Amino acid sequence: MVTRSASILPSIPMTIFHTIVVDRSDSMNSMHGSHIRQLRNYLEEQQKAAKESGNTIFVTVITFDTVAQTWIDTKNILDIEIPTMELLRLWASPRGMTRMYDTVIDAVTNQKSNTVDYIKKLPTMVRELDPHIQRWIYVITDGYDNSSLHTVNEMQKKMLSERRSGLGTILLAANIGDAQELACLLYTSDAADEEDSVDLGGRRII
Question: Which of 58, 64, 105, 177 has the most CB atoms around it within 10 Å of its CB?
């Protein structure tokens, strides 16, 4: 069995896939633009992390209301310019209904597919070294889903299944609606054991 030494792990570059899913439905007016600032901050943090760590970080940015739109699709964070606030407002200003369940399920499925394709394209020698690859999905929402074909239980099942295969999940949700329900459902004993859930100012991040 091959194990990684904790003493050398920080010096081994990783490949990390980040998918940021942002609710832009009409109910997000209650956040007064904070979801847009959160999106920009997250992108800036990942760009800084890539420069300082040497890790390869791929980002995908998706917004949704009645439909989902992919604005950045699996791009190296160091190869893109961080969008301006003006551009992000065009991407994420509130409107329409809330297609959360379908969007999150699709985002996780596509991210996994892109990760598998990336691994397949690596040189055989690199694959044999068992490169360290992480997957994260960051969902910003505060509303009730009212436009999906899937149910909250189907989304929960998908997220929990992917967590078991290594997906890291971050959910930023106000204490209302299906978003908060999902936060509670995902806060399992496994999550507590892994210490990957904290509570910040009335919002649960998982």
Answer: 64
